[in-house]
Amino acid sequence: MDGPALRQATDGARGRAAVVGGGPAGLAAAISLANRNFSVLILEKQASPTPEAQVRPRSYVYGINTRGQWALDQMGLRRPGQEGEEAAEINGLRIGFSKFGRARKGGPSKIKRAKALSTVWAERACIVDYLSNEARRQHHDRITTQWGCSLLDLNTLSSTVTYSTAAGDTRRDSFDLIVGADGANSAVRAAMHRQDPQLQVTHLPARRRYKPFYGLKAEGDWVPAPPQGTVVSFITAPTHLMILWKGPADTVSGLIGASEHFMLQPRTKQDWLQLLETYHPELPSHWMTSAAEQLQEAKAARAASSVKCSYIVQSRTVLIGDAAHACTPNMGQGVNTAMEDAVQLAEAIQACRYDVPAGLQRFQDERLPEMHAMHQLDLNVDARYGMQGKLHPEFLVSMATFVFWGTLTKIFPQVQLPPTMASNRASVSFQKVVASIRAHKAAVGAILGSALILLARWVVLLSLQGTVRLPGLSPA
To answer: Which intervals hold domain FAD-binding (predicted)?
Structure first.
């Protein structure tokens, strides 16, 4: 993918596209457009094509659910889990999910091996390397990358991009399509706003924070057999979440994530050690000591913010991924919806017979309401991590609905979970999930309220019969 800034479009090419950003969203867009005979230039700020897993030791983990897996299928890529493997390495993508469970206070975690890969877990660096390798392997003649460049200017009216190269040169070129896939702090989005101040962008910081730790020496049952980047364990505790994954040279890295209220409380090394011993006693003792030291020194980093845009298309320029709708990690939808964006963008242009402006308008009409619905769901879930805690009304409305249907399907297996309640499914729109929650919340509240009244009546009756004694009540 390295080479001249832009090769001449191959015979029969649909047009020339510039993709700003070489992360999962940008690479997915490049592959999807190249699949439809576009000549694509990726403008990437990273200095070289060195595999990201080697230059960014402090990475983080993505869960690729059925939305992301659908996108990989549409791109024509072999996705992990298709052949039932629990862990694999596919052209740089190191995946797997060894253990998951729930921590109990004062006892070992309930941990078991994953039975299926409905969600594929992988380090971000591995996903980037995988998509980069696939782009190079499948479309070496259609996709090129300009490494170490910075976006200097973007004129959406003329579809012209001005950027500096790693060598210090300044280049300017026009394109048939410009895709802004450059993250939550998008320079493309900023350029669009300069040219049209009517573009409204809402930034809401996440109320969840995390602290990482690295270099724990893997040993015994905790030695993950799969390659670097494989998730070793995903453990939830009453106060926090812990994720562990395999690092370089048989080491294990991890993070602890929780609400701001929890993570910003001052803690000594001994406090962290006590927390690990309380909720994760099955971990090797020397891990706890090293992790406690790092957790005490590390700054509590804020999780990704939530971003909402009033529109995402300006002339021949379009925003996708975090540039269009960054979300917090709470829903686990960031990388999945980013790759979904890329595929649906290419499909919309194809559906309009490669009329780019018409295709972009179609993409915005279909996708923007989905982005806004996902933003609303994200806010509902993120409320759980705010200072309001678990009693926040938005969180309770969402969770009560999911708990009700989840409990009902457990008690009565013949009752199927409504498709609109399964937001991870590629076939279910976020708009339907939001509408379903609104439609069901009154019924759920009435049923739960009735259940509480019946329970209270039953307890009172038992107390009057002498079976249960309550303060202030005695048998007649």
So the answer is: 18-374
